[in-house]
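dumping this here before i forget
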Amino acid sequence: MLKRLKPDQGTAVVEFVVLVVLVLVPVIYLVLGAMRVQAGAYAVTQAAREAGRAYVQSASPTEGSHDARLATALALEDQGFDAGPDSVTVECDGRCLTPGSQVRVSVNLKVRLPFLPDSLAESTVGSVRVSAEHVVPVDEYRSAL
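structure:
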């Protein structure tokens, strides 16, 4: 004789909940994390470019450093990030702001992954460090300082 199998009535809800918890939630978190890291990468690239442009257009190296920090802070805030005190580094080959020289700007940022507590977000587990470099030539026709 054939045995009758139990009906599958009511198991779809359980399967859906298990599928959402085990598959969909981690995939959504990975997408959100990747989007946040990509926003950080765009932010540091824009910040390095703008900081370099602000530096080479300034009147003195001291003013240039100040302008580069302001440009970095503005570019990072545009993408929703806060600039730290050591987020931008400016290096010159030879004498800074000499016509024909080059200025190298580096911007570093620690991107926190979403929905993590502060204890994890400040460690290497809960954050990703992104950086960008940009080299800006000083105009050949700029008046020498």
